[in-house]
Amino acid sequence: MELIDYKDFEGVKIVQQKSFVDERGSFLKAFQKKDFLPDYHIEQINFVESVEKHTLRGLHFQYGDHAESKLFRAVKGEIIALFVDLRKASGTFLKGDTFHLKDRNHAILLPRGFATGYLTLESNCEVLYLSDNMYVPGAEGGVRWNDPIINLELPVTNPVISDKDIKWDNLSREFPGIFK
Ligand SMILES: Cc1cn([C@H]2C[C@H](O)[C@@H](COP(=O)(O)OP(=O)(O)O[C@H]3O[C@H](C)C(=O)[C@H](O)[C@H]3O)O2)c(=O)[nH]c1=O
């Protein structure tokens, strides 16, 4: 298993693994504290099914102490992970990027301070993701998938999206970040 730093986004890591394959099928070690992420505390494990191709979930974050670090893995199908750095002190503050998770042997770790989301690239996608913090609806915020400041490059113009995610405001250059 390899953890690879992703560009200049501090703390963002790409996980590359190999499944154990035999005549019965395959075995993937989806998480292991010791050899994988010894300091990662799993608070939640979420399993999400998206029926339609080009379903876009997010981008979401939680403010302050409720911020979450998430590890996303496409268990079935392919997705494009979306993320934006909302850490005011970071060199990549308000910079966004995408990463194509093409199979279950890859995952992406996003540290606390990022807005996160993903776009499915086929129907009936299944995503398993870990979070290191509790879900606190009152502490949640969002970034629009097509926010002009972030300018994510996506292969869609009209994704399947929730009413909640349609309503997020665009960020402004004065956005103070999600940590007080
Ligand atoms: C995230 C979450 C949601 N919920 C409930 C709240 C709603 O009734 C329902 C769906 O929530 P939501 O529409 O926020 O789910 P997604 O649009 O898939 O968003 C999630 O996936 C994107 C990629 C994210 O980055 C967030 O982690 C997360 O918000 O599950 C819970 O009960 N606990 C939770 O931890």
TrEMBL record:
Source superkingdom: Bacteria
Q: Which reaction does it catalyse?
A: dTDP-4-dehydro-6-deoxy-alpha-D-glucose = dTDP-4-dehydro-beta-L-rhamnose
UniProt cross-references to Pfam families, sorted A to Z? dTDP_sugar_isom (PF00908)
Alphabetized Gene3D superfamilies for the sequence: Jelly Rolls
Give its E.C. classification number: 5.1.3.13
Record's CDD domains? cupin_RmlC
Describe the task this protein carries out: Catalyzes the epimerization of the C3' and C5'positions of dTDP-6-deoxy-D-xylo-4-hexulose, forming dTDP-6-deoxy-L-lyxo-4-hexulose.
Matching entries from PANTHER family are given as: DTDP-6-DEOXY-D-GLUCOSE-3,5 EPIMERASE, THYMIDINE DIPHOSPHO-4-KETO-RHAMNOSE 3,5-EPIMERASE
Q: Give the protein name, as stated in the record.
A: dTDP-4-dehydrorhamnose 3,5-epimerase
Source lineage: Bacteria, Pseudomonadati, Bacteroidota, Cytophagia, Cytophagales
